[in-house]
## 1
Amino acid sequence: MIDQIYTYFTIEMIFLWLNLGVLPFWLVLIIFPQSQICKVFITSIFPISIISLVYSYLLYSLFNDGYDFLGNFELYLGLSSILNLFSDRSFLILFWCHFLAINLFCGGWIVKDSQKFGINKILITLPLILTYFIGPIGITIYWFIRIFYSKKISLYD
């Protein structure tokens, strides 16, 4: 049975399931941010735990395949090193899993923070969509919206 799981969950299949798997979370964040489902399943540790299980499986399978994890530290050496790392499918799927988890965490934070300040859910739709696609820009736009609702500029909270 474990061999069947190992042969089914190839890098391409994991990529497909990761991309399809985060969509319901993002749809609930965008459409129903004040629902109980969003509070219990989306803005909690639940989705990040699922992604971390996938990440752990990837680490385990890459370790068994003899992946050079120390080579990942080459990303700090320059753009050409990053380009070489992104040409490796194993590194790319680890990065993508990391990217999805962080963006989903930020989307959950935006929803919880907007509820704390009473920001209209329509106003956070654009920052949530932008955070899904291009995280830092969505968070920055949300920060500007948040300034008007909190009536103060705070660089930390």
## 2
Amino acid sequence: MSSAPFEGNDDIVLPFAVEPLDVRGRVVRLGPSIDTLLARHNYPDAVARVVGEAAALTVMLGASLKLEGRFQLQTKTDGIIDMVVVDFNAPDRLRATARFDKEKLEALGAGSLKTGDLLGSGYLAMTIDQGTDRSRYQGVVALEGQSFEEAAHQYFRQSEQIPTQVRLAVAEQFENGRHTYRAGGLMIQFLPTSPDRLRQADLAPGDIPEGHPSHDLDAPSEDDAWVEAKHLLATVEDHELVDPAVSSERLLYRLFHERGVRVFEGQHVHEECTCSHDRIMAMMRRFSPEDRRDMVGENGRIGVTCEFCSEFYDLDPTAVEAEIAKSEA
């Protein structure tokens, strides 16, 4: 196993290849970045775990952007968590937010809640934006109570048509006198040189019931190499994806040492919001003067809180109007 040096096991995306199996993939390990992100919002544990899974998946997919750009994962559903938005600004900036019904969540108690149960039904959209309309791409997957792992598999089947398997995990641990969060993920993709080996089973053929002779008539058998890769991935346990004592390289060696795994240069990531005074002012300019006057509170100020990082901007209405007038002059 070859590797490029990097410091630490946390907040890193590590690409790799298992060439004998025609497999490429990435491992993501989030430590301080995801803990800082979640601490800004003080989410209940169930919500924090869902956001952690979404963040790990977003970083894992967004790290494929070769140039500066943004990869965004967004859900809109009828569940207790009716919205999750995660932004990965290449090459290394992560931010996220979620909206949930606190009363409904508390009514369910502290039992074990699965991601799909909390999200409910709706859709998941994955958007790649590299700065121009021409390079913007969006794939949408229907959510019907499935996990982020299952939704990712569906996305790649219908949008990318690349055999893909994903594992995600989130854990809470007690560290330095407080509870902290960690998240991790591992993705493998089957990329043989022969297009014929990429063939996958078609989606379910409409109203033909399972078990009918025509149902699986044209379904191709899976490539042996891909079957082996999926079997190896299935042996990964959640704690291996989040354990700070198990580096990404060590995990890959455990999985693929018999076949040989090649590790490429890792990319560090960190939590960072893109909000700023200039962005807040750009937003304010989109409102009419009447709307801006309605924003003034009892204290005579305009207060704006960033939904991603919870940063509060305390604005003087007179200064806001003067700055807008200057920019429009």
## 3
Amino acid sequence: MPEKIQVLKENLFSEVEIVRARDFIQGSEGYSEHAYKPTPNDVWTIGYGHTGTVDGKPITKGMVITKEKANELFKQDFEAHCAPIKKVKVCLTSNQKIALASLIYNIGAGGFEKSTLLKKLNNGDYKGAADEFDKWIYQNGKILKGLVNRRKKEKELFLTPDNAL
């Protein structure tokens, strides 16, 4: 059984949702033990889409980590990136929480908190919020196929009733 991720003291995610979200996000991010730049204009990344530092050291070309370290970093990143879901004022299904967790993991908390997606969702416009996923496909003004594919999967999950799985 995978290590449990304790997300938010308010128990925003059930244990089952945490496992599903982890699998969904890690499947989208992929794993790399070696530091890489997802695109030429991107920042150095390692593990499951982790950016920033590892043990206080900036991620740089040539850095290598273990799968265990990648999972530790993912746990920290997941907890931090799921916190903004508390800004949602309407009820969410499990699938919607997981889709939002994936989006936030990729675009960052700040992007989500300022987004039209969050505004529409908080106004009860679930369909309008789902359509906003399609707008998060750009980097430096260019459409990235990887982001198009990821947003499509997230949007489909967001719109899928929990009992349809």
